[in-house]
TrEMBL record:
The lineage of its organism: Bacteria, Pseudomonadati, Pseudomonadota, Alphaproteobacteria, Sphingomonadales. This is ABC transporter ATP-binding protein. One of its GO terms (cellular component) is ATP-binding cassette (ABC) transporter complex, substrate-binding subunit-containing. The keyword Cell membrane applies. Keywords: ATP-binding, Cell membrane, Membrane, Nucleotide-binding, Translocase, Transport. Transmembrane segments: none annotated. SMART domains: AAA. Coiled coil: none annotated.
Length: 359
């Protein structure tokens, strides 16, 4: 059963359509990331789940019951806001304990639970401070603590790690994954960081322009992006897009070199999407000139300029190539992604020969 269902949900502020018809079924116990660029409607969606905004149209259901008219306090949801609104007059300990106090949890038990959360979030030494005496990252951790201290049915987290430095962020990422595993509650996690979404989630909804572009497991959205937007948003370095041409007999060429055989009419010009890890240098292949070379230790990212565009290759760290050098590259036909040159949607059926690796 799904924990949360969004059915035809729309939201407009005045004339502005922000959420334009979202259908989502979030499985019970899922860690769902709402992933998308700034302004795409992630926070608005989350606020509707929390009951802080009312949908202009459509239905929100929690455990099967329509909650459109249920106030936030009656939804058994904890939310961590993007702007971690802490109570300024309360200490860190009091902020974290607040949801427990409101629910009448006895003082002794409160102290124990606050201490456990503070330890997990490395807030122990800060418990007696006021929010204004904390850095942004520390305040963010307190806000997280306040949500974690009671175990509600559903957690809503709006970019809760965005103010943390890289080390703490990766530590917190691991803690949240572990927490989710331990308590098994449904979590909806907003982020514009695709790496965060890929590493933490059981499910990802990629959102753009107020619409869910794709919903699936991290592997599904990575391996089989439904359109160029999703393909370009997921994966680092970003997928390269170059122009392909279909010739006689379905020969698909890239910069004049045959790279696959496809089931399409001569003259078609699909966009070919290539991930950096699928590119190899070879004796025979697409001719290209080496551009930027970025050694990052165990591997080297190399930009290859060919007549059809620029392709990035992720090569072994000891690859010795120099900018300006002429090389050839190849990529497995089965790992190419093909998109409609106009609408950008994935071309699946006419190109089945290319799909064998992507099931
Ligand atoms: N109360 C409001 N009144 C008018 N417009 C709003 C309101 N709240 C949000 N918007 C607009 O709706 C759009 C989506 O906002 P939202 O905060 O949901 O985006 P987001 O995906 O969370 O972005 P970010 O990653 O920057 O936080 C934005 O263009 C924003 O300006
Ligand atoms: Mg937001």
């Amino acid at each position: 059963m799904s924990a949360i269902d969004l059915v035809g949900v729309r939201k407009q502020f005045g004339e502005t359509q922000v959420v334009r018809g979202v259908d989502l079924a979030v499985p019970s116990g899922a860690f769902l990331s709402l992933l998308g660029p700034s302004g795409c409607g992630k926070t608005t969606l989350l606020r509707m789940l929390a009951g802080l905004e009312t949908p202009s149209e459509g239905e929100i259901r929690i455990d099967g019951a329509v909650v459109n008219a249920v106030p936030p306090g009656a939804r058994d949801i904890a939310m961590v806001f993007q702007s971690y609104a802490l109570y300024p007059q309360m200490t860190v300990a009091q902020n974290i304990a607040y949801p427990l106090r409101k629910r009448g949890v006895p003082k002794g038990e409160r102290a124990g639970r606050v201490a456990a959360v503070a330890e997990m979030l490395q807030l122990g030494p800060l418990l007696e401070r006021k929010p204004r005496q904390l850095s942004g990252g520390q305040q963010q951790r307190v806000a997280l603590g306040r949500a974690l201290v009671r175990e509600p049915r559903i957690f809503l987290l709006d970019e809760p790690l965005s103010n943390l430095d890289a080390t703490l962020r990766s530590h917190m990422r691991a803690e949240l994954i572990e927490l989710h595993r331990r308590i098994g509650r449904t979590m909806v996690y907003v982020t514009h960081d695709q790496l965060e979404a890929m590493t933490m989630s059981t499910h990802i909804a990629v959102i753009d322009g107020g619409v869910v572009q794709q919903f699936g497991t991290p592997q599904q959205v990575y391996r089989r992006p439904v359109n160029r937007m999703v393909a370009g948003f997921i994966g680092t370095p970003a997928m390269a897009f170059v122009e392909g041409r279909v010739g006689e007999g379905g020969a698909l060429t890239l910069a004049g070199t045959r790279v696959a055989t496809v089931d399409a009419a001569p003259g078609a010009t699909p966009v070919i999407g290539i991930r950096a890890e699928d590119v190899r240098l070879a004796e025979i292949g697409v001719p290209a000139r080496v551009g930027l070379v970025e050694p990052i230790g165990h591997e080297t990212l190399v930009r290859l300029h060919c007549d059809a565009g620029i392709v990035t290759a992720r090569l072994p760290g000891d690859t010795a190539v120099q900018p300006g050098e002429q090389v050839h590259f190849t990529a497995d036909a089965g790992r190419l992604h093909l998109f409609d040159p106009i609408g950008g949607e994935r071309l699946t059926d006419p190109y089945q020969g290319n799909e064998r690796d992507h099931g």
